[in-house]
């Protein structure tokens, strides 16, 4: 059975928790997958994606350059390299996102999209 370990994962911008929220949003908007991954101390911490920008999670009326991105990143449960392509496809559809992170032992590996799943 084919798993995520058998496919080439895509890359998206990676930021650390101390990066400004404004910087992370700028990177997100410029990325075709509209996804930014948060990595701190070389460990996966979560993602910021377009769905989150539309939620009430991001404050309005404040200078986003003064806020660190860490508190605003959702600790999305990542996929594991042993996840089958069918399971990954179902997760993407269920969550309604363009990309999901793949993490092995808390180490970020990349993201998977529908393109890798055939």
The number of helical elements comes to 3
Helix content: 10-25%
State the shape: globular
CATH topology: CBS-domain
**Top-tier CATH class:** Alpha Beta
Q: Give the total of beta strands.
A: 5
Strand line-up across the major sheet: 1-2-3
> Cα distance, first to last residue?
14 Å
Structural class: alpha+beta
Task: Write the CATH architecture name.
Answer: Roll
By CATH's scheme, which homologous superfamily applies?
A: CBS-domain
Strand content: 15-25%
What is Rg?
A: 14 Å
Question: Stretches where pLDDT falls below 50 for ≥5 residues?
Answer: none
Largest sheet: 3 strands, mixed
Order of helices and strands: EHEEHHEE
In short:
The chain is an alpha+beta fold and 118 residues long. It has three helices and five strands.
Describe, in plain words, how this protein is organized in 3D.
The chain has 118 residues and is an alpha+beta fold. The protein has a single domain, classed as CBS-domain (Roll), CATH 3.10.580. It is built from 3 helices and 5 strands; from the N terminus they run βαββααββ. It has helices at residues 21-30, 50-53, 85-95, and strands spanning 14-15, 35-40, 43-49, 100-104, 107-112. The strands form 2 sheets. A 3-stranded mixed β-sheet has the order 1-2-3. A two-stranded antiparallel sheet has the order 4-5. The radius of gyration is 14 Å and the shape is globular.
Label this structure with key terms.
alpha+beta, CBS-domain, three-stranded mixed sheet, 118 residues, two-stranded antiparallel sheet, globular, 3 helices
